[in-house]
Amino acid sequence: VMQYNFTTIKSEVRDILLKEKGSKFIGFAFPVNNEKELKTALDNLKEEHPKATHHCYAFRIGINGENYRANDDSEPSGSAGLPIYNQLLAHNLTNVLVVIVRYYGGTKLGVSGLVKTYKESTKYTLEHAEIITKELETELKIHFKFSQQNIIFSLLNKFDAKVLNFDAQEDCMITAKLNLSEKEKISELLSEIQYVNFKFLD
């Protein structure tokens, strides 16, 4: 089954505080589309909270969350990153980074206490996020004759395509973005029009 959309968060969530036995756990969630955005978000947090004991995090990137990592940042193995990651799975979110910044308060929580608190902290942070469904898009390049522009534009309109680029010569070229779910239908219709060439760019 082809997947045409994914669930993520609309915008970043910051400073969601949870206290447990004197320790402070501060939750952050960021929408991220690639490793570069991820690294920027992590670096900025480390600058904002240089004295924090731990910056534990997990992320999922990609339509099926195929790019993922869970990082305990020197908490006991499996006690922090994994509970954060499991909450991303439970909420079926991708293209999301969650970081829980911990300031140690003097009382050890033990592994099970940590697992529970990192899970709760992540859950609480994600409850503050606006969860949205995003359609996957594809780009399309069409070559056609100038006299055909009305046909082409009304076809693109019908599919709610966004025109990115239009080069109007005797032979015209248009680049447009549309929902991936419409790819087959628009291909069928375009291939029935004479003098029209098209290709998908991704």
Describe, in short, the structure shown:
The protein is of the alpha+beta class.
Notable features of this structure?
five-stranded antiparallel sheet; alpha+beta; single chain; elongated; four-stranded antiparallel sheet; 11 strands; 202 residues
What can you see in these coordinates?
This protein is α+β, with helices and mostly antiparallel strands and 202 residues long. It is 30% helix and 38% strand. It is elongated.
Using only C-alpha atoms, the radius of gyration works out to: 23 Å
Tell me the strand percentage band: 35-45%
Main sheet record: 5 strands, antiparallel
What is the residue-averaged pLDDT?
Answer: 96
Beginning-to-end CA distance, first to last residue: 19 Å
Portion of residues within helices: 25-40%
C-alpha geometry: elongated
Secondary structure blueprint with pairings:
Elements: E1 5-9, E2 13-20, E3 23-31, H1 35-48, E4 54-61, E5 67-71, H2 81-90, E6 96-103, H3 110-127, E7 131-135, E8 137-145, H4 149-158, E9 162-167, E10 171-179, H5 183-191, E11 197-200
Antiparallel strand pairs: 1-7, 2-3, 3-6, 4-5, 4-6, 8-10, 8-11, 9-10
